[in-house]
């Protein structure tokens, strides 16, 4: 385990990040965490003097998109370096060691630092065919998660696949893919950081919080940190004024699209998706999907691939019809059909009664039954 | 039960005031909710100019929420009245527990299929209608739950409506809640179409003043079940 204190600050200096930038990073993190401004100094203090957490990064049924999300960076920021510095212990995609050598590193961590390291899991856990769909070094993903997460201090399920099953678990889920929580129930201190991919800024903020306070921030019912998943995209969206006013993009590239109107009618799932994309942004806060004219896909929600599709329609089509068939169309015709059928029924009823002269005869009407 | 009319068409007080009040509150709110809800699902008005000068969708949503409050309270009141009102308002009118009412469902179905000349005489809800209303109340609760769940997503921090977010996973997520909310609305509208026509048909065929009864409370020429059960 690295020495106290110097692990981060020293590394930052070596890579040319100034103290000023580091302080700015800490206040940004305080902002992401929705902590008061003054907390920035506290976080900086903790990061400068605290113990370096050991972190292992496991990848299973994934596209390495989360890894990419954290490792990209034309000019590495303090956040990148933080994650970079943390994750060297074990990370298949980026570590120098390979094969048995790499597995030995993992084993050392698990047995040598039991209960003291953090695990990041990326990707879902296949449980079909006895776990044969994903094996590393001859062991199934399920086995590895059980062991590595089982003796970890805490586990972060990063990305929608690890948090909720994601794309591998989408119907028909051929590999029996499960989220970390479902695959191995009862993992200690599990936190979900869904999104496709998860936002590097949120992961950095989460780790800083953990290093500083030694526990996770408040979570919601799906074990997501409230600082990042406490509000819908829609409630913090910069296009919300257009939504409320009644100004919508109707077609790609139409006038409304060029004017930056709300993307609700082209399928924006912002109202049903919780994440802080509008505030934190992507690519070091350059922009975010809705900001550049694309609807939110709802990537951070459970079953997103099954439930949020079709991506460019407000709702799925009516069951049994083409997916483009809007429910309202089927519903309107159905309702008209019911009205027509019962209208016809009433007319037939009356005509029949007229025919037998019954409708005229009150006493026979109300009295007799058999 | 011998259902011969005891005398010349007598006026029977069937629908008490709370029944009529909740009925018409539900009618009105369902109309408002359907119109505003269809708009919210597909906002077909587009306004020009600056966003700050308009609040079209915002206003329609607010109307939808107020109508939803009226609707939910009326449904709740009607359910409570199922345990307080007269025999025509009570829950056994909806849940076909006894043999007689179950037979009545079949007889009413036969009437609707032209297999039978007259529906079984009933003062309150006919047995088939009663069972249908049970399903309709089920749809009402689906609407109220999905509506509250969706509302909870944007409820301000600390709002008591936040508790309804607990329903979100049960309903299969917010996007599914939206979907269910739409389908249930169309089922309710389909019921409305049927209900209006059936009322007209029964009024013409049975001549029991069923439509006026929803205003005055009185039906004519129906067996007075309430008095009968008192006599026995
Ligand atoms: S673009 Fe999407 S998130 Fe933004 S206001 Fe419109 S519907 Fe809401
Ligand atoms: S805008 Fe929506 S789809 Fe895009 S990253 Fe954010 S939560 Fe995911």
What can you see in these coordinates?
The complex is a heterodimer of chains A (370) and B (232). Chain A contains 17 helices and nine strands. By secondary structure, chain A is an alpha/beta fold. Chain A has two domains: 221 residues, NADH:ubiquinone oxidoreductase-like, 20kDa subunit (Rossmann fold, 3-Layer(aba) Sandwich); 74 residues, Cytochrome-c3 hydrogenase, C-terminal domain (Cytochrome-c3 Hydrogenase, Chain A, domain 2), CATH 4.10.480. Chain A has a five-stranded parallel β-sheet. In chain A, strands 4-8 form a two-stranded antiparallel sheet. The C terminus of chain A is likely disordered. By secondary structure, chain B is mostly helical. Chain B has one domain: Fumarate Reductase Cytochrome B subunit (Up-down Bundle). Chain B has eight helices and two strands, in the order βαααααααβα. The N terminus of chain B is likely disordered. Classes of the chains: A alpha/beta (370), B mainly alpha (232). Chains A and B meet through helix 12, helix 16 and helix 17 of A and helix 2 and helix 6 of B. Bound molecules: iron/sulfur cluster (2 copies).
In a nutshell, what does this entry contain?
Chain A has 370 residues and is α/β, with parallel strands linked by helices.
Q: Number of helix segments of chain A? A: 17
Provide the β-strand percentage band of chain B. Answer: under 5%
Q: What is the CA–CA distance across the termini of chain B? A: 13 Å
The greatest interface here is: A-B, 60 and 60 residues
Radius of gyration of chain A: 28 Å
Broad shape of chain B: elongated
Structural class of chain A: alpha/beta
CATH topology of the largest domain in chain A: Rossmann fold
- Kindly provide the name of the CATH class of chain B: Mainly Alpha
In quaternary terms, these chains amount to: heterodimer
Ends distance of chain A: 92 Å
What small ligands are held by the chains? iron/sulfur cluster
Strand content of chain A: 5-15%
Q: Give me the side-by-side strand order of the main sheet of chain A.
A: 2-1-3-7-9
CATH topology name of chain B: Fumarate Reductase Cytochrome B subunit
The profile of the biggest β sheet of chain B is:
2 strands, antiparallel
């Amino acid at each position: 385990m690295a020495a106290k204190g110097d692990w981060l600050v020293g590394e930052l200096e070596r890579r040319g990040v100034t103290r000023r930038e580091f302080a700015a990073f800490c206040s940004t993190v305080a902002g992401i965490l929705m902590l008061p401004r003054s907390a920035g100094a506290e976080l900086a203090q903790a990061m400068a003097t605290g113990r370096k957490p050991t972190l292992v990064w496991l990848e299973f049924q994934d596209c390495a998109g989360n890894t990419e999300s954290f490792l990209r960076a034309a000019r590495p920021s303090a956040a990148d370096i933080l994650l970079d510095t943390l994750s060297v212990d074990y990370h298949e995609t980026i570590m120098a060691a390979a094969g048995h050598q790499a597995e030995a590193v993992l084993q050392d961590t698990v047995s040598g630092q039991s209960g003291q390291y953090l695990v990041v899991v990326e990707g879902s856990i296949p449980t079909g065919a006895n776990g044969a769909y994903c094996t590393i070094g001859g062991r199934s993903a399920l086995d590895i998660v059980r062991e590595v997460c089982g003796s970890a201090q805490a586990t972060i399920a990063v990305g929608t696949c690890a948090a909720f099953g994601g794309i591998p678990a989408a119907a028909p889920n051929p590999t029996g893919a499960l989220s970390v929580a479902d695959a191995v129930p009862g993992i200690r201190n599990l936190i979900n950081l869904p999104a496709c991919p998860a936002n590097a800024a949120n992961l950095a903020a989460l780790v800083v919080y953990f290093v500083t306070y030694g526990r996770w921030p408040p979570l919601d019912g799906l074990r997501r940190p409230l600082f990042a998943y406490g509000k819908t995209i829609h409630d913090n969206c910069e296009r919300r004024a257009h939504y409320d006013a009644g100004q919508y993009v109707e077609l790609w590239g139409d006038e409304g699209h060029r004017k930056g109107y709300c993307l609700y009618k082209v399928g924006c799932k912002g109202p049903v998706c919780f994440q802080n994309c509008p505030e934190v942004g992507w690519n070091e806060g350059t922009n975010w999907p809705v900001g550049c004219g694309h609807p939110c896909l709802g990537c951070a929600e459970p079953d997103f691939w099954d439930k949020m599709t079709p991506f460019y329609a407000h709702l799925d089509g009516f069951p049994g019809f083409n997916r483009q068939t809007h429910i309202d169309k089927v519903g309107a015709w159905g309702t008209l059909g019911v009205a027509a059928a019962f209208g016809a029924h009433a007319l037939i009823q009356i005509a029949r009664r007229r025919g037998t002269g019954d409708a005229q005869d009150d006493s026979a009407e109300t009295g007799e039954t058999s | 039960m011998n259902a011969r009319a005891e005398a010349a068409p007598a006026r029977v007080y069937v629908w008490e005031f709370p029944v009529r009040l909740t009925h018409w509150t539900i009618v009105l709110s369902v109309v408002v909710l359907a119109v505003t809800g269809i708009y919210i699902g597909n906002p077909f008005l587009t306004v020009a100019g600056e966003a700050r000068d308009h609040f079209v969708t915002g206003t329609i949503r607010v109307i939808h929420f107020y109508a939803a409050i009226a609707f939910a309270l009326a449904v709740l009141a009607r359910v409570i009245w199922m345990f307080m009102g007269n025999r025509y308002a009570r829950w056994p009118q909806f849940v076909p527990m006894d043999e007689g009412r179950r037979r009545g469902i079949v007889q009413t179905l036969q009437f609707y299929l032209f297999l039978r000349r007259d529906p079984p005489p009933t003062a309150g809800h006919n047995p088939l209608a009663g069972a249908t209303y049970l399903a309709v109340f089920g749809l009402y609760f689906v609407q109220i739950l999905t509506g509250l769940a969706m509302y909870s997503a944007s409820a301000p921090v600390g709002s008591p409506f936040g508790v309804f977010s607990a329903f979100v996973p049960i309903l299969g997520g917010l996007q599914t809640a939206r979907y269910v909310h739409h389908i249930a609305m169309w089922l309710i509208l389909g019921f409305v179409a049927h209900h209006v026509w059936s009322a007209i048909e029964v009024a013409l065929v049975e001549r029991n003043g069923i439509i006026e009864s929803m205003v005055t409370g009185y039906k004519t020429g129906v067996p007075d079940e309430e008095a009968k059960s008192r006599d026995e």
